[in-house]
Amino acid sequence: MTVVAQEYRYLRSSELTGGLLGLQTSGGTALRRPVDNPVFFKGFLTEPAAAAACLHSVAKVAASRYFQPTQVRLRDPVVTCNGDRLRFESFASCCGVYARLDVLSAGLDGEVLDRGTTNVDVNEPLRRMLARVGSGDPLRLAVGPDEVTVTTMDGVAVEKKVELPQRWLRGFAELQVITAGFEPRVELPVAEAARFLRSLSSSSRSRGASWAVPAGRSLRLAARPAPGAVCLAGPQRLEALLPLLRHAKSLRVYGPAVDARSLPCASAWELALPGMAFVLVLSPEVNRGFSGEGAVLDFLAGDDVGQDAELVGALLEFEPRVEPGDLAERSGLSRERVRAALVQLGVSGRVGYDLAEASYFHRELPYDAESVEQFNPRLRNARALVEAGAVTGEGDVLSVKGYQVRFQGSGASCTCAWWLDYRGTRGKCKHVLAAEIVRGSGR
């Protein structure tokens, strides 16, 4: 597996001292420029116990591997300050679970010093301290090496080199496309949410997909999908929600529309807490990471996408809600081209999707994505097929290197083994992509 080495330089270790939670930052991007150790926020969290528990869960997901567990190197969560909120994000090492904590304006009492994105150090001693924070304990948060944090630290430099698989970054890109197609399916009061989540046997390490089906005011597990159901593959992957239930108000579950013939699909589980929201997104199966879903491929094959992404990217300013309609008006592009540009920006981690707000948000991950094709080999191979003249035929049936691609309505099918195995559930095969590129270019 290809990896990208990133060196994270923290001025000192993150620490919780006397009610002051000092989260040290590595290099990142602030509102107007790259910064070695950016400073974003300084102030109090209005719900200290809930915030500490949520931060602990974000870090726990980053340290977990739900498929083929191994001893893995810990990864440091990503934090973005969008002005009116702080977002903490992490992926499991297997890339099949995504966690995000949004501390909203009601959960913050302090000063926003800048907007931007960086990685934060949440080390093992800090996780143990967060687990002991009570509701009556003050919790003052300093995101970045400000002067208050310095007075409580010894100043010893901490440098960590972390090998980041490309699939981690690809997971961010796929996630914002997949979740943009979700709708709220059910909302449970916290008592019913707790009953359902605790009924999921932690001893059952099932890798197959079950379905959470509405049953009165609650949910029940079923072996088959039904209208209104949400896929739940590997119920044990929801364990990060359990410590948060005593602070939560409700649970909202999101997913795509399904029927009795639906195949396993991703789902999102969001706890509403005072001044905060915590969301887990699960891949369709325990052994499937988001990085291989291929959802971005629909938007990356166009010839103008790269130029459109440069234009749209220049208009982003770490907004908490990125509105495609507003970007279309400011850029002069159509909504469809703006959405494709946002997907392209997501490939380098510059765009995420917020289910509660039903909108995109701007962030900047500390990666150098050399090209879209580097992270999407199917697209790279499709372009190679086109350049080699391997696409022949016309109309709704094309031949691509001996395989038949047939277009029907808004979809397409192929006779290759990939299509027969997945039937579009993990994105388009290289043959369909090549045929679409030829049809779109008029070759």
UniProtKB/TrEMBL annotation:
PROSITE patterns: ZF_SWIM (PS50966)
InterPro entries assigned: Znf_SWIM
UniProt key word Zinc: yes
Keywords (A to Z) from UniProt: Metal-binding, Zinc, Zinc-finger
Pfam (any one): SWIM
Keyword Zinc-finger: yes
Protein name according to UniProt: SWIM-type domain-containing protein
